[in-house]
């Protein structure tokens, strides 16, 4: 993890693997690899940072295990271990960084929402509250930028209004989700 306790790209992939196995149960190697590649590509697009984590490495580290067979070569049935469940819990509780253009935050938020229901209700509330807080911080940053660039020519002000509206909508969505828990 980064110093601020937020996920690095390889840890986001770990969260995707472990959450998928915990949520859906054991899966065949090829099925799991294909589903993960599809999900990650659709959220952030092709990324060399995300392609580096191998299911074999997670097996070696004891986070997943082959329930039959040995691995990729015989399309083994893979499942999460107890250590993998503990790692999943740790990764789910990690911080989310302030929004950035690299796509990693979008992936981390998508993974948290995809697997949020696997946490206890109080932990779900904590995670949603943290995500709402990120939206509030983003709105403050964008508002400051709007004030600083008032009266400038071009299309930046329109684009900024659009960005602010999206952040306000995300905040409303998270607050609504929080009220439903």
UniProtKB/TrEMBL annotation:
<dbReference type="InterPro" id="IPR029434">
    <property type="entry name" value="Put_trans_reg"/>
</dbReference>
<dbReference type="InterPro" id="IPR036390">
    <property type="entry name" value="WH_DNA-bd_sf"/>
</dbReference>
<protein>
    <recommendedName>
        <fullName>Alanyl-tRNA synthetase</fullName>
    </recommendedName>
</protein>
<dbReference type="InterPro" id="IPR036386">
    <property type="entry name" value="HscB_C_sf"/>
</dbReference>
<dbReference type="Pfam" id="PF14557">
    <property type="entry name" value="AphA_like"/>
</dbReference>
<dbReference type="InterPro" id="IPR036388">
    <property type="entry name" value="WH-like_DNA-bd_sf"/>
</dbReference>
<keyword id="KW-0143">Chaperone</keyword>
